[in-house]
Each structure stands twice: as C-alpha cells, then as structure tokens.
C-alpha cells in the first residue's frame, strides 16, 4: 500500500517538476526574445529565426494544406449526409466555415507542426546536448535559451498562426468544392455565404489558440531536448516524448480555450 | 598569485562522491595536466574549473573570482578569458569550421566582418586548418575536428586554455601533432593551459606539472620528474600499467563449478 502512495507521490512530483521547468523555460525565453527580433535584436539571431520560420512554416505548407483539404471534404460530406435528411444542406457551409476558423484549422495545424517541428526541436537540442554543443555555448558565454530557443519560439509564434490561416482557407475551399459538385452551388455564392457565417471573433479566437499551440509545441519540444540524459538512444526517446506530450497538451489547451470562449465570448 | 585555485572541492552525483576534497593551484603561464584513469574524476574536475557544474562544497577561484558565487556578469567576463576545447570537439554541425571559429568573435566583439574574417583565418592557420575553413565539421577527420575546436577556443585570445582529452581516439602521429600544437600555443601566446588526459606520453611531453587523480582525490601533484620518481603505489600502478583488480581465476572457476552442479544442467 505504501509503495502505491510512494509511486503516486513520485509521479506527482515529477509532473510538477516538468510543469515548473516549462514555466521557467517560458519565462527565460520571453526575457531573451528581444535578441531574436529584427532591427532591435542580434542580426544573427534574426537570421536563425527566419531559417526556423522557413522550416516550421514554408516546409510544412504542403502537408498542412493537404490535411486541411481532406478534412474540409470529410467535414462537408459527413455534415451533408446528416443535414440532407432535414433539408438543411446549406448549413454545411456554416459547419465548415465556423468549424475550421474556430477549431479545426488551429488544431490540424498544431498537430502537423507538433509532428514535424516539435520532434525536430527535441532531436536537434538533444543531439546538441549529447555532443557537448550546449556546454560549448555556455563556456563561450552564450546562453542556450537565447541562442537556440528564442529563435525557434519566435519563428513558431509567427509561422503557426500563418499556417492556421492557410489551413482555414484550404479547408473552406474544400467545402466549397464539395458544395459545387454536390449541389452546383456557385463558388462566389459559396464564399459570400462563408463570409456571412463567420464573424471576426471566430478568426481571432482561432488565432489566439494557434499562438497558444505554438507556445506549447516550441517549449515542450525544446524542453524534451534539454532534458536528454545519456547517449543517442535518449535523443530518440525525447523525440517521441516531445510529439506525444505536445499533441496531448495541445488538445487539452484546445478544450480549455474552447470552454473559455464558449462562456465568455457571446455572439 | 595562482590563476586558478581549487580549495576543498567536493562533488557528488546522487550521493556518490566523485571528487573528495581537492586542493590545487595553477600558476599563470604553466601547463597543468590532469592525469588519471577512466572514472577518476578528471572530466568532472574540468567541468568545475570551467563553471559548468556547481560543487557540493569547496571553491573554484579563477583570476581571484569564485566561479560559483560571482554574478552572471562576472561569470560572463570570466568565460571570455577561458577557451575550452571539448573531448568530442563540440563544433556546431550546422556551421562551417570558419563560422564556428567566428561565432565568439561575432557574438562578443564589435569588430568589422573583414577583421573577423582575418582573425578567423589566423586562428585556423595556427592550428593548420587555413585551407579547410569552408568545410562542415562532419567533413573533417577526428584530428582536424579537435584542431578546429582548439582554433575556436583561441578565438577570443583567452588567458586560460582548457583541453579535454585532446588526443583521445587519435592515432599516435596525430596525437603527437596535437602535443606540438599545444606547446607552440603556450610558447606563442604565454597562456595557462590545462589538459585533461589519460595518455602518458602526451602528458609527459606537454606538462609543466602533473596532478594525478585517483578515485576523486589527488594521489600526487608535481613536476614530470617528481611524478616519474614517485613511489606512491597508485601512481606506480598507473605509470607501470599494472591493473588494480584482476579477475580472480579461482573464484570464476568455483562459480562455474557451482553452475554445472545445478539441476537444469545435470538433468
């Protein structure tokens, strides 16, 4: 019995340690972010940020677009199959437009970025740790948080909302294609209905979520890299752990934000 | 006044004592070799000297400043005067060799890019890599990587040069070349050099004094001749290559005898 309590206690302390480390890392990064900004910061850091933006955003564009198109089709088809029975096929437009801007666009993007970039952050930083590159930064009086993490975080903060907007667009376009082929609804008319059904707050709440998701992905990925102990096998474990934890936390954060917006932001 | 002073240094990992009350002074301009077998605590001591880890108790003073009690600004200044080349070289794989050497200059000086390029070329020329600056670290041989790491350690013209196992994993010719390079650097730049190694020929070639570590304590500290003449059994075991714990053949034979009598073997 005592060992069960011991185990629960140890696990709780480990989780608290993890959350504490995430908070400390987030705070340190926010303080170091100035160095990664253009004009006011260090130009080498800004160059690194632009490189990261290309990796997180531009390289993920085909994958995110394809995921959004497929999901837009799926959502439209599933919605149509039920709504047709009630003669409410036109509500498919609302379903796709509102569903994507508020929910699916940010979530799909976050899952794609988590799988691609969250794991890459953990692997890169973990490898730097194993090969003593992080130590060599410290002995050169360079802080790894400023040198490695700040450009990644800033790049994620810019790229993930941009990808989310693109994902929203492709998802809605896919819904439009479905409506065109199933009901011969003219594309221009479809987009007029889309603009009528979504409000600015839907876009804004979606973008707020995407900023939160970017924070989770960047920080969980980097923390997993910084926590690597031992040899190359632990880099592999940290990579897996980064994807699993960041995806889980993104979904939890999504539920929390959705609840907050549901109870506070009234149409 | 010693440039590095270690007093009653105790380091523990998870309750296991790795360094046990070490005392050592390193004078300006001398080459101190930390010699010892695997697991003797050499690398741990080196990490204390360069301020990468905090001790359980005791002090490490560099240029009169306690590494573990100074302000972050003082530590940063101190680190500018210490150049470190790690055992794995720890060159940044994403940067070319010349960018690796240029990194501390770009980060910590306001020199014009043309001056930085000139300085980088000079540092690479000193270590014999002037023609290899454009290559990535993974395109270099083991010995060249180590020389590249030395060039980066020299970038800010440090007063103290710290080398962790510079000849480990290298063939005798390349190891001898590195020894000559260390002697040349000391002669040319009058710097204090600390070398961690377990290679005796290398240690006796480059050292002014040798500190021999054995299970976390200094078994002997002295000049090359004093170490050679030492009658301390721990020093003699190391110098005469006498293993401390040989496998007990009788005990092994008895173990196998017992195993052969077990029911699953006899049946």
Quick take:
With 267 residues, chain A is mostly helical. Chain A has nine helices and no strands. Chain B has 267 residues and is an alpha/beta fold.
Description:
The complex is a heterodimer of chains A (267) and B (267). In chain A, α4 packs antiparallel against α6 (144-183). Chain A is built from nine helices and no strands. Chain A is 85% helix and 0% strand. With 267 residues, chain B is of the alpha/beta class. In chain B, 41% of the residues lie in helices and 24% in strands. Chain B has eleven helices and ten strands. In chain B, the strands form two sheets. A six-stranded mixed sheet of chain B has the order 6-7-8-3-9-10, with helices on both faces. A four-stranded antiparallel sheet of chain B has the order 2-1-4-5, covered by helices on one side. In chain B, β1 (4-13) and β2 (16-26) form a beta hairpin. The longest helix of chain B has 18 residues, at 172-189. Chain B is globular. Chain B starts with a strand and ends with a helix. The model of chain B has no long low-confidence stretch (mean pLDDT 88).
- How many individual helices of chain B? 11
What oligomeric state do the depicted chains represent?
heterodimer
> Largest sheet of chain B, order of strands side by side?
6-7-8-3-9-10
**Estimated helix fraction of chain A:** over 70%
Helix content of chain B: 40-55%
**Strand coverage percent of chain B:** 15-25%
Helical/strand content category of chain A: mainly alpha
User: Termini separation of chain B (Å)?
Assistant: 75 Å
Mean pLDDT of chain B: 88
